[in-house]
Amino acid sequence: MAYVSDFTKFINAWMAEHPEELEEQKKGRALWWDKPQTPAEQQANLASKVAQKPYPYQAD
User: Fold this and answer.
1) Which stretches does the entry tag as region Disordered (predicted)?
2) Distance between CA atoms of 21 and 28, rounded to whole angstroms?
């Protein structure tokens, strides 16, 4: 049997008692995360990325 934290148990029980909250959760996610992007926005996001050093804490 896999380990399940107390918090996960609490959330699973709470969601079982309040199924209407699933819809609220989806609305909140759509508000902040699930945004459609145009190809131009995707290109701008890719172009704005900065290359990361292999070890960021190394002094140059």
Assistant:
1) 36-60
2) 10
Which two structure tokens, joined as six digits, stand for 55?
């070890």
Give the residue carrying structure tokens 């902040």. Answer: 32
| pLDDT tens-digit readout, 38-48 | 999 999 999 99
Give the predicted TM-score (pTM) of the model: 0.49
Sequence-ordered strand ranges (E) for 1-60: none
Contact yes or no for 34/40 (Cβ under 8 A): no
Q: Fill in the amino acid letter for 53.
A: K
Listed residue (29, 24, 28) closest to 14, CA to CA: 24
